[in-house]
Amino acid sequence: MAITHEKMIEIQDLWFEYPNKRIALKGIDLHIHPGEKTALVGLNGAGKSTLLLHLNGILNGHGTIWIDGIRLTANTVGQVRALVGLVFQSPDDQLFSPTVFEDVAYGPIYQGLPPEEIEARVRMALNMVGMQDYGDRAPYHLSVGEKKRVAIATVLSMQPKILALDEPSAGLDPRARRSLINLLKGLPHTMLIATHDLGLVEEVASRVLVMSEGKITADGKTEHILKDKETLQKYLL
Amino acid sequence: MHQLGAQTKLLLALGYLFTTAAMPEKAWKVYPVLLILIICTAFLARIRLVSLIKRSLLAFPFHLAALPVLFTLPGDPCLILSWSKFSIAVSAPGVNRFLAIGAKMWLCIQAAALLTATTPMRQLLAAVDALRAPKVLTAAAALMWRYLFVISEEAVRLMRARSSRSALLSEGQGGGSIAWRAKVTGGMAGSLFLRSLERSERIYNAMQSRGYDGKIRTLPSTQAEECAPLTLVIGGFLFACLLLLGTLWQ
Ligand SMILES: Nc1ncnc2c1ncn2[C@@H]1O[C@H](COP(=O)(O)OP(=O)(O)O)[C@@H](O)[C@H]1O
Ligand SMILES: [Mg+2]
Hints:
The structure holds two protein chains of two kinds.
Chain A: E1 9-17, E2 23-32, E3 37-41, H1 48-55, E4 62-67, E5 70-71, H2 77-83, E6 84-87, H3 91-94, H4 100-110, H5 115-128, H6 144-156, E7 162-166, H7 174-186, E8 190-194, H8 198-204, E9 207-212, E10 215-221, H9 222-227, H10 229-235
Parallel strand pairs in A: 3-8, 3-9, 6-7, 7-8
Antiparallel strand pairs in A: 1-2, 1-4, 4-5, 9-10
Helix pairs in contact in A: 4-5, 4-6, 5-6
Chain B: H1 6-22, H2 31-44, H3 49-56, H4 60-65, H5 69-72, E1 77-83, E2 86-91, H6 92-118, H7 121-130, H8 135-165, H9 178-209, H10 229-248
Antiparallel strand pairs in B: 1-2
Helix pairs in contact in B: 1-6, 1-10, 2-6, 3-6, 7-8, 8-9
Bound molecules: adenosine-5'-diphosphate and magnesium ion.
């Protein structure tokens, strides 16, 4: 893949403290290029989810964030949310509508698109995740793997440039996991994937960021990081 | 019955509720007619009466709320309850009103149970929406419906976790005082509440991520289904007749 010098995600010196005084991010610096699929690994509590929630302004720490050249501020947060599709860890939190169709249509509705365009977007998104026949189903009655796919469709319908996924393979059976990996491999988006699944990292991501206690402690090509026994021992195992 | 549009069914049910609520309390001869209406509808919809009656038990706690009218309505005392120095009189009009409220409530719940048994929740919400109810209301109801299952499943999981750890060593009374058990149960309720609260925060995040800005927007409902006018007119006429009958025939 041709590396361009534009950056899709750029974060400078990002700090975040939860209301209970827990400092979850301690000076994050990060550049991600367009089309790059990056994995974010680290133990529970390292700050992965907190970082992802900053990408579209759900949480606001100290520091600066640029998404596709737009600086994230209170004024640009709407624009940025259209660029970043955030897929939450629990699909039950992500799928809050009575039907799959309505859930996938939610983003486009809030983007103010005309009804025909919304329909087309929903169909396109459900097609991309292979769930085209599930529009009328209730999210509650789907299997975990199906819910996960629909959850991804709910952000694909917004046509974002970036997909930020929080532990996408957690709780999936081997077959659902396999098909999720294939799905992620096939999507063209810039991705930031928080995960513990090193198999998924190896197959999907070209780059790995290792997080530990609110800092990025290692950053490199997937094949290098996964072979680096010392780093893995220190921050992951 | 099942072919009728959700909107028509909703309007008919509302008409029934209104008629029942507005029926004069002494119109005892009309109440059986109202009941027959329910039974016929259930029959047409092929709903078993047993399941309807089971659902109507839900109304029982609400009957308790009507208890005070037994004592507060002035009139001839027909029963005097006394307990040491206190005595309290139950008046005849009080009994009458209590029974009427009970009957009305029971009939209304039957109607609501019938409506929900014959109409999927989703269509019902769409129908309420089409009748121009405030969007906040329908959106809140939709969310409630969506997460009712999730939360009740969570409760079931909690209870299972408790029962699987409350084994008995031998026959007889389990360990722990009643106070301790109450504390455990209270803790479970609290933890369920906290989890729901945290979940609501995560859902709100998910909504925000997809552009939610405090305003509720939905797709204009595409299948604005036929509101069968004839059925509605017949229904309205029937309800009006019943009300008239009830007023005259006390
Ligand atoms: N809502 C919250 N309130 C307070 N502290 C939190 C909250 N969410 C996470 N934390 C804390 O912030 C740190 C980072 O958490 P998180 O970003 O969820 O880590 P990860 O996703 O890598 O497991 C942890 O120490 C966690 O306890
Ligand atoms: Mg996390």
